[in-house]
Design a protein that fits this description.
This protein has six helices and 19 strands. It is an alpha+beta fold.
Length: 236
């Protein structure tokens, strides 16, 4: 049975193809670049954990691949970038992050992504923030597909579509997702005190996060608990 049809048969939310025009407001499918070296390295040298996910922001071997330098020029205007990966067994969506530069993903295996628009995060009169999870859309990305997600697109970890879990290359501007230093944390906290509501979401460098109150791993890191609606699980 066609994988996309099966995913729609077993889930209560629509699963869209990444090639559907609905994806165009979140990013684009990239064609014409040789990512075979990255895929081969990922398949041979990166693990899928027994549970949860693993995220490596920067892998030196991957960054030696010529296509990474090309991506730096074409998609980041020559700015330094990092190439790493996210592998795992996630099957829920209950949190979102966004950056202020694009993210490139290479689907080493099939997986799903849940996407939204940061502009749909609501700011209320009391200064609290919320995001209604029903506004997010789910996309199926088949193995070998390369995508660019635009800055400000809400996303988080991929979701598996098989018992083997998922593997995906993650390329970002260098430094994204790294820890804020103490001085940066103080400045963020000062901005919050001055009424900058977006600063409440700043968790790491160029990483603004909003999560469901039940997403304990993110809440424990200090992520803002503002996602409303069900704590969703997807099936395959």
């Amino acid at each position: 049975m066609d994988k996309l049809k099966l995913l729609n048969d077993v889930n209560d939310v629509p699963i869209l193809s990444v090639f559907d025009e609905r994806f165009l407001s979140y990013g684009r499918v990239i064609k014409g670049y040789d990512v075979s070296g990255l895929i081969s390295y990922m398949k041979e040298h990166t693990p899928v954990p027994d549970s949860g996910n693993i995220y490596i922001a920067s892998d030196e071997k991957m960054e030696e691949d010529p296509v990474v330098k090309t991506f730096s020029t074409v998609f980041y205007g020559g700015m330094p970038i990092q190439a790493g990966y996210c592998n795992g067994r996630n099957d829920t969506y209950n949190g979102f992050e966004y950056h202020k530069s694009s993210e490139i993903n290479v689907a080493v295996t099939d997986f799903m992504l849940v996407l939204g628009h940061s502009g749909d995060i609501c700011c209320h009169e009391d200064g609290s923030l919320s995001y209604d999870i029903s506004q997010a859309e789910v996309f199926y990305i088949p193995e070998g597909t390369v995508i660019e997600m635009y800055g400000n697109t809400l996303h988080l970890s991929p979701l598996k579509v098989s018992d083997e879990g998922f593997k995906g290359v993650v390329i970002l501007q260098r430094g994204v997702n790294s820890e804020l230093v103490d001085e940066e944390k103080k400045e963020r906290d000062h901005l919050i005190e001055c009424g900058d509501v977006e600063a409440k979401l700043l968790l790491k460098r160029s990483k603004w996060v909003i999560c469901h109150p039940e997403r304990e791993p993110l809440v424990s890191q200090g992520a803002y608990a503002g996602v409303t609606g069900p704590n969703k699980q997807l099936f395959y």
